[in-house]
Design brief:
mainly alpha; 0% strand
């Protein structure tokens, strides 16, 4: 039971990381420091998709499932709804390249918006001491 819960936790963390890779740049609109966390994460996500690599969370999760005595994904909410999103059936290299391009495009748009907002703030308040 403990290994299964740990494996489910890894899947949920994996899903959260994927969401952060795709949409985390939006957090930089509110908190500038978030870009320091998000840019490397987005780079990693694109790199994994382009190279066809395996995220280190995947073997951790598989190892936990094996330790729990599970042969595959079946059962509860996590296995039924979250896992197919993270590990879609029929994932090809072409789809991986498309996913990488999508992540890159979304983040380029987000960071262009972040830079535009930052420039607008700088023009509105040219005093560097009193900038938000």
């Amino acid at each position: 039971m403990g290994y299964r819960l740990a494996a489910d936790g890894v899947v949920l963390a994996h899903g959260a990381f994927i969401l952060f890779v795709v949409l985390g740049g939006l957090l930089a609109l509110r908190w500038r420091w978030m870009a320091l966390l998000h840019v490397p994460a987005a780079f990693w996500g694109v790199l994994i998709e382009v190279t066809g690599g395996v995220c280190p969370l995947t073997p951790v999760e598989v190892g936990l499932r094996i330790a729990a005595g599970e042969a595959g994904y079946s059962g509860g909410f996590v296995e039924h709804y979250v896992i197919p999103v993270i590990y879609p059936a029929g994932l090809t290299r072409g789809i991986q390249f498309a996913l990488a391009a999508f992540v890159l495009a979304v983040n380029l748009v987000v960071y262009a918006t972040v830079l535009r907002c930052r420039r607008s703030l700088n023009r509105a308040n040219p005093d560097p001491v009193n900038r938000p």
